[in-house]
Inverse folding.
């Protein structure tokens, strides 16, 4: 499941973790916006973000055929 951690640029310890089956991130010059299956669900001004990291665990699946 897609999981992201948003690291705050100035306030240590106020990082945000978002997790959703259909989560996607959009980066624009002024905003970091997250979308789920229903549309935009979380946005933060880009100057307040140090980094955005995708942290979901690898899913074990069947080996590729070939």
């Amino acid at each position: 499941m897609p999981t992201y951690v948003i690291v705050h640029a100035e306030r240590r310890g106020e990082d945000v973790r978002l997790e959703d089956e259909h989560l996607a991130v959009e980066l624009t010059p002024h905003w970091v916006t997250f979308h789920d299956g229903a549309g935009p669900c979380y946005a933060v001004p880009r100057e307040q973000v140090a980094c955005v990291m995708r942290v979901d665990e690898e899913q074990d699946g069947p080996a590729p055929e070939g």
Q: What stands out?
A: Residues 3-54 form one domain.
